[in-house]
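Supplementary Note 3. Input sequence used for the single-chain structure prediction.
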Amino acid sequence: MRSSLTRVGITGVALLSTGALLAGCSGGADADSPDGRTTITVAIDAGLEQEARDNFDARVATFEKAHPDITVEAQEYTWTATTFTADLAGGTLPDVFTIPFTDGRGLIAAGQIADISGYVAELPYADAFNPNVAQAGQADDGSQWAIPIAAYGQALHYNRALFEQAGLDPDMPPTTWDEVRDAAKKISDATGEAGYATMTSGNTGGWIFTTLVNAFGGRTEDGEASAPTIDTDAAAAEVLEYLHALRWDDDSMGSNFLYDWGTINQDFASGRIGMYVSGGGNYGNLVTQNALKPEDYGISILPLQGADPGVLGGGTLAAVSPKAEAAQQQAAVEWIDFYYLAKLADEKTAVQTAELAASLDQPVGAPELPVFDDERFAQYQSWIAPSVNVPLQQMAPYTEHSGSQPLIGEPRVATQDVYALLDAVVQSVLTDENADIDELLRGAQEQAEALYAKAG
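The predicted structure, written as discrete structure tokens, is reproduced below.
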């Protein structure tokens, strides 16, 4: 994706999940304190409530007690596509920061994150990562430069209360795109709210557009990632025509056509949107940062159609600044192991983390794609089962079927830049009834071809 990693999927203490990506000033210049301790700066979510911040600080204290030679300093930083590049160039990222899957390979190829693969190889679960997830943080030779900490597949999120107001059964969400359109119009007509909404700004418009192209059976780049296929794949035009019909024929998309990840979450949580597409792990952010009523929440798999459909997947990587010295790099991997992965790989930590999150009314058991292989993921689920506090039955339309849907990785070349130019395409279709879809796609194709040529 990401646009903003916060999509990732990236939420709250448990996961930047799809949550905001946080960072701060690099600790590279002060790596060694007078007492011989190694100091690292680490990312922390912005805007945490006091209890959540106290929880983070307590975990830092636990880590430092177990690692008396390491000092951890937290810095707030919100990842966005527009600010990340400047922070990277300016050297203001922390020693440990998070990035979306889409950025991993590009940063590795450019040497803009540290090669921590030697330290990662020493982790006890180094060979147990889900290979479809791990590759986002791997160099061409397979070495693991960035560590996957969260993964997601796209989903259809829906408001059960609006479904009921429109006379729809919230336990039977749409299973085809025609049914999505029909439900959207019924919701809009009955409630005056947007029956269906979509992101269009901050690179999220291109992210969701690509998601729908995949779901309609198409692709926005060829299989070798050597060229964009924006104007040659029939599914791209089909998706824009579908959105045009929702907007102009049905008037079921409300009045906001400049949503990004944060603002669409806010309006969905407040009951202003009947359905929208985003990462399947978005529940935590909706509840903890947007005050969603759990009883109103529903999630289902994306409808798939066409000859070769699939679900776009992505996630979050933990990376280390290239300015970090060797001792900091090693300390950073130890922090990533402790803070992000132990709650998935170690029974005691998983149980304690789940119990603490539940005691703070943070979601436990929300949908996610496994970072590790199936055996470890099933083991993890059994560990946290007593603390699960999310409406599992309302999530069943997604959790019971998402594993059978084919996953498609995000486009690999100039991902965020292409998403940005596709933002404008989607915005045009939603704001200009007479927009020339073919011309818009041709223009996007030409710009994307230039980006691919530059990247090559």
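Residues 1-30 have pLDDT under 50 and may be disordered. The first strand starts at residue 38 and ends at 44.
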